[in-house]
Amino acid sequence: MFQSFDSSVSPGQGPARLAALRERLAAQGLAGFIVPRADAHQGEYVAPCDARLEWLTGFTGSAGFCIVLPDVAGVFVDGRYRTQVKAQVDMAHFTPINWPEVKPGDWLRQHLAGGVVGFDPWLHTADEIARIEAALAGGVTLKPVTNPVDAIWSDRPAPPAAPAFAHPEVLAGESAGDKRARLAAELRAKGEAAAVITLPDSLCWLLNIRGGDVPRNPVVQGFAILADDGQVTVFADPAKFGADLRAHLGAGVAIRPPGDFVPALRSLTGPVRVDRATAPLAVTLELEAAGIAVSPGADPCILPKARKNAAEIAATSEAHLRDGAAFCEFLSWLERSAPGSLTEIAVVEALEGFRRATNALHDISFDTICGAGPHGAIIHYRVTRETDRPLGEGELLLVDSGAQYKDGTTDITRTMAIGDPGEEARDCYTAVLRGLIAISRARWPRGCSGRDLDALARQFLWAKGLDYDHGTGHGVGAFLSVHEGPQRLSRLSDVVLEPGMILSNEPGYYREGAFGIRLENLILVREAPRLGDGRDQLCFATLTFAPFERRLIRIETLAPEERAWLNAYHAEVLEKLGPRISPATRAWLETACAAL
């Protein structure tokens, strides 16, 4: 099993660790310290040695931070984690804060009359610190310091050391040399001498390599400097790069140990491009201290990486068909077996087993979210042996899962009925499904961003006075991170959607203490067939294939065009997956995909 069901946290240890941290802060003359869920590469998923927020508070979510002051410790989490955080932290010592509704700068102003609040400049971006500082007033200041958590974390795990490996050009669709030359030309056109690459997925995309340094993400942790002549210097553990991989990288790529990164920064000739939104502030501070001009600009890999080329699209399409077949085998098994004596853990084990049976599974793309009944309302719930519960008759079961195959990354969510869950569940499920269909059917003129489309997914919930506290969609990589920027379907995203971008389409609804509903397909931005007066428009192609739960659909509430889309989608599911599945599952799929 890739997924573990052991609990990695012990909230009971939080108070002692919090007290030790406060003692350390007092010794350093600090009134407070910010502990983020982040590493030096600003990844959503972190290696065990970088899980400082989890170690201190017990909170395991993929986003958030804690501000520790002498008399209060606020744990800031967004809407995905407001139920989870209350179950994981010691509420007598840590106070959950609704973020981003409550801004950290405003909160600091309210709770601290004056003093210095420390932060680790390797764990925060320049933009992040600037936003906090803009809200501060009075005598409160922020100061970059050596991380005091590391000083008291006596049994901190060792850094990851997984070997890196080549990602074939036939899957990448472009050689690493061509990528380096293309981005170097962009630097020269802007008069920049170099760019600092800090994101592991950018590094891996640029060099056509993959690794295993971060759980569920096939990336290599390291920094890189891309020069305007196309030469790249990678700063990572040299032991990760074997002779064959070095030959694959070629003479234009040098490997140096991590300790050489800061001296290399100080020796550069400017201007040097640094992404204020993704690079640690420490990079900018080191360059400025050496008198080197900093050119603020986006990581040059981010947009090219997001725009999947023809080879990447073909590869990930095949990965999604493979994964869809495995998921249908799982759904067929679940219908035959549930509820019986099944528990959430048994469901997760079975789903991973069907994916392993493809003989192509490299890893899962994140720990499977399998929430039965009230656990479905915990948006990013991860079952443990302590929280495992049986599937109950009349409940909903939410399963959000994905896989890493060498030809693509998948992410799919379906919500199933275990018996008869009642009319309220059907009403909510149908509203969520109609939102997914609205996004799937959307057409828009070039130049629109995710925030222009987000409301399409929410409209049917809004009509009922309901909503969900997460974005509608995130970007997805090509055998890289399952959460990839910069594109999103969110009211907060102004990134223009472009052909080749892959996003999730995942509206939901969550009734705390009762049930959760989420439906998710991955979708690909593509050029739309011209209509009307021939205007240039874009649309989505669906990559994910698996049936929706017929027992939860209020068919009479669907508009004719919605019913037509759903029938066409189910017909395509049967056509594409039928030849890939067992006879028993095909018989089940024929019923599941029958026209409404």
From TrEMBL:
**Signal sequence, renumbered to the chain:** none
One GO cellular component, as annotated: cytoplasm
A molecular function (GO) held by this record is: metalloaminopeptidase activity
Q: Which UniProt keywords apply?
A: Hydrolase, Metal-binding
Where does the record place the Peptidase M24 C-terminal domain?
Answer: 538-596
Q: Where is the Creatinase N-terminal domain?
A: 17-151
- Name the Enzyme Commission number(s) assigned to this protein: 3.4.-.-
Highest taxon in the source lineage: Bacteria
Residue ranges occupied by any Peptidase M24 domain in the UniProt entry: 317-527
Task: List, alphabetically, the InterPro entries matched.
Answer: Creatin/AminoP/Spt16_N, Creatinase/aminopeptidase-like, Creatinase_N, Pept_M24, Pept_M24B, Peptidase_M24_C, X-Pro_aminopeptidase_P
Its top-level enzyme class, in one word, is hydrolase
According to its UniProt record, which protein family does this protein belong to?
Belongs to the peptidase M24B family.
Q: What is this protein called?
A: Putative peptidase
Q: Which organism is it from?
A: Pseudogemmobacter humi
